[in-house]
Fold this sequence. Notes:
By secondary structure, this protein is of the alpha/beta class. The chain has two domains: 3-265, Spore Coat Polysaccharide Biosynthesis Protein SpsA, Chain A (Alpha-Beta Complex); 277-404. The protein is built from 14 helices and nine strands. A seven-stranded mixed sheet has the order 3-2-1-4-7-5-8. Helix 2 links the parallel strand 2 and strand 3. The structure holds guanosine-5'-diphosphate-alpha-D-mannose and manganese (II) ion. Manganese (II) ion (MN) is lined by residues 126, 128, 130, 240, 245.
Amino acid sequence: MSNSKDNLLSTVQSDILLISDSPPAGTGIDGETIHFSLVIPTYKERENIQNVIQILSRLLDESLLGNYELIVVDDDSPDRTWEVAQSLMTEYPQLRVMRRQNERGLSSAVIRGWQIARGNILGVIDGDLQHPPEVLAQLLHSIEQGADLAVASRHVDGGGVSRWSAVRRFLSRGAQVLGLIFLPGVLGRVSDPMSGYFMVRRRCIAGVQLNPVGYKILLEVIARGNVAEIAEVGYVFCERKQGESKVTWKQYVEYLHHLLRLRLTTKQVGQKSAFPIGRFLRFGLVGLSGVFVDMAILYLLSDPSTLALPLTRSKIIASEIAIFNNFLWNDAWTFADVAMQQQEWHHRAKRFLKFNLVCLAGLVINVVVLNLVFNFVIPNRYIANLIAIAVATVWNFWVNLKLSWRVTDVK
Ligand code: GDD
Ligand code: MN
């Protein structure tokens, strides 16, 4: 099946994504433990790989000669990056190369690399020189000083991005804020949770089954690992000189998927706060989406240029459709963790009915507060209306939280 050259390639594990306590026997040259293993995930990095290996080797040879390894995990790149990497193995004995043909994706590539690693410290760095290699020494130092996890961060002293557009900065920060709402206990622990440049003690992630999607392997490590102390080192995310980024809209979708999965499958330790702010923000966003649905339906039904139905009748139908819209989003998102536990149809129908009643009461409250504020406090109908909406939103949220999305089945 494979020729003698292919035998130089490291075998890819195909079982679950789990890292063992001690380095797997028979994968290394002598099966012994070493200090540090650095995984370099690659996809179409042919023009970069030689440079990367050379720079990293020169740097790490200074302090860790013979006590570290570089593991290139290539996802069968069409430009045959793995082949170039393989050709460097004689010159760099600390280099190991894996060619993955049955699996794809950045996060799982990193874990597959760590699975064959012999190091007590496991690290990852991009294969396109956007992560400055000099930072490795500081990261290693942090771990040696006692940190479980050392993250290179763009958002602490000494960190930054080189030439990013406002749009890209906004997207990056937006993703972080979204993550903070979903998973405050994970993303709140580091300043740059999107970093793909970090190292972790093997024992902190050994024995736990990892299950990442997409790009953000660090989230997985923090959420599922056993990480106590975290250190951060600033770095400037450099521009790419060769090749191109593999990030497309697909990575954003995968990121959302990853957040949701972590949210549903990990315990959020220390998250019991008096007011569930994340849920409330999600509830508010869903409410906003309902306004647009309401408007659109009202237009379709009552506008003289469309169906021209009577206004009241149109409004009632529009409201009910908006309520249905909001219910679906709240059930699938805002209160997904609760809804997951009671998925049967009669449970769902019950929640929908309760939600309707609460929202109806909310409407009454809205009108009452509007009148009270307008007549007795602030004689400005729009400010009064804003206050009324805020009060009704808090009512809707709180009562639905306590009433509609409640686990009623006692186990
Ligand atoms: N094996 C494998 N499989 N490697 C991949 C894949 C894949 O599916 N997709 C990307 N890579 C490799 C690339 O070849 C590169 O070495 C590295 O992963 C990062 O990919 P880029 O496409 O260059 O990502 P980026 O520059 O937009 O984003 C990087 O920077 C972020 C900074 O915040 C990533 O490293 C992020 O993890 C990092 O957080
Ligand atoms: Mn890159």
